Amino acid sequence: MRFSSRVAAATAIASLFSLGLAAPSYAAEQITFSVDAPDVQGSFVDGALLETFNDGCSSPLEFGTFTGVCEGAEAIYYAGASSTSGSPVTGGVGTSYARVPMGAAMSISLNQPANYLGFHWEAGNQFDRVTLYSGDTLLADFSFETLMDALAATELTSIGGSSYAVADYYGNPVTGVQDEPYAYVHIFASSGVKFDRIVISEDQGSVGMFEFDNMTVAYAADESFTNVVELDVVELGGPASTSLSDTGFEGTLVLVSGLALVSIGFIARRRHS
After folding, report:
1. pTM of the shown model
2. Distance CA 76, CA 127 (A)
3. N or C: which end of the chain has fewer CB within 10 A?
């Protein structure tokens, strides 16, 4: 289905040029997936609403309501943040956290459209997934394979040029144990882009769960930040954009009498390592 759609898209674009027409150009709007410095357990974003899950995982949350599966759990040696600070913190006493089991999903409907999501990713794996929607429109689908691939390097470099040793992302910053990755994740949407639903899920085939803590949402976050490591960028453009492809292209075509292409939408992805 996906292959045939791309063939159709390519044929339609070729038809444009044969008719002497040009595909419309749109300014790129983006949703970026980044991580903070090692041992950061909270968000630096001013005004963000914080859900600590200290009273369990029950609806409503500080920023909306959810359906699906979310389990609240008491802190254990491998999960449960000890701080909500946006600066690196180690040690302390862990607090309750939230988790989504393998094959399950937690769908959060926000109280109002937002442009920022953050959370502490704990004992992470490549089966963790976050998807963002505006109404029924899929805006971004972030698989944590991208982050796991990045952590195979020796160091990560922030937007501002700071270097972080990858080894420092491994091990629980609270207890110092568990040889799995931990990081504070930041997802920013550029000006003009808003999402109103967040889905946290754990793909089939995982041997664990999606554990997270200190989830934050902001409705109008400042996009000026340099301390984060940008790992994945989804570029959106065009009024007909409806879905995201891991391969970098999805198009929606509208034909008039089967001849002339009058609308085309793009969603492109570029990954950083």
Report:
1. 0.79
2. 21
3. N
